[in-house]
# Entry
Amino acid sequence: MDAEQPRSSREPSPTSRASDDDRPHEATSDGGRTADPGATDDGERTPTPPGAVAPLRERTTHGHAEQPERAGAVPAPRPPADNASTALTLGTPTDVVAALPYLVGEPPDPGIVVVALRGTRARAAFVADLARVPGGQTPLERSRTVVRLAAEEGSTGLVAVGLGPVEVVGPYLDGVVGAAREHRLDVHDALRVADDRYWSHLCHTPGCCPPEGHALDTGRSTVPAQAVLMGIAPAEPVRRPGEGWARLRALVPKPDDASAAVMEGVTAAVEQQARRMAAEMGEAALVRRGTAELLAAVRREKEGRGVTGEDDLAWLGVHLTRVGARDRVWARLTREEAAVQQRLWARLTGRVCPRYRPAPASLLAVAAWQLDDEPLARAALDVALAADPGYGMAVLMRRALDLGLPIQRWRAHAPTWLDRPPDSPGPSESIAPPDSSSPTDSSGSSGPSGPSGSSGASGPSGPSGPSGSSGRSGPARAPGTPDPP
# Structure
């Protein structure tokens, strides 16, 4: 199975024979399509990196070796290669579980991994931590959202793996299978894994799958050996939320009272200048100027001449209240520049007045997301939402993380958005799941780049400063979350 997650890429290859513990069973999958093991994906955007993963040869089951093959590709931070023969062969459910560290890192427990397949490649892998389910979402609603996103990516099938007890994981697997049928996607397998055993939610044949499940011994899988021979390293372990706050405190400077007072005075003067300039040159011209100055700050950071002066930092904070300028910077925040921008937005988050924190903190979260650092991204979003619980960009980013939305969905979209006219909706609109609106998102149906975005298109000249008209107060954080730096 080729899988597409921000960590590794995979190519199809012939699968191996099943072990004795992974013998065929009679489970069914929906859709009835037959995969072509030699097919390639139309419109593939990236070269094949080393370390591909072949799909289960089984068409419908927990990996028993008598069904057609499916695969998927998952871009990773690995150098591209043109050799499509470097593929991990997955012939059994044990192989699928053994391959998870190479596909998505250490999956959460309880958690679920959904690998979306298209042709013989997986287009994306959605990873959900079931201990962090968004409030108000039922398993069926969450599963439908993930499957709908997979269908929107042009997927033709999927493989689901749930980790944890049946009472927690079962409803999600059932939801994935049901939603896949609604979208006419093949379900090649839906496995539940717990206590070194696995069960298939697709097998209903008496005597095939014992109630105690099948033994899961990843030590018998050839996947690790294949990976060593191909030079494929496991993805980085999943980082825990506490690590994100520790790194955030190390990245974000905490000014003393005297420095904060100086910045308040400088910011007040900059706000007055911005109001005067908006009146003289027009809001659109000020957005263009702000965009240019923000991108110039990124270039300076890259050259080792980062912005540090109070006046310059205050202007950057004010410019980011213009949604058009902010979204232009957001759209250009690529993985290649993520480390540079992470430093810039962390410094700005710590130095600007608290009411100006939402935009740079949200950009810091995007940079961390690009670098596969979800805990840091979540910690940065906590800072943004503590300053403005209705800040649209932060609400949207948190929703994307809660859904396990792959960063590739954004990476592939950003260049297209940059070609649109300046008054077109920004990236915030196009990656928002259409049926997952939040009552705390004051950005309206058009996303944070819309006319009623919580960032406030009027910027500092508005009655509420950079937060626009949201008027909300109080932290949007779970109990026990550390205070922002």
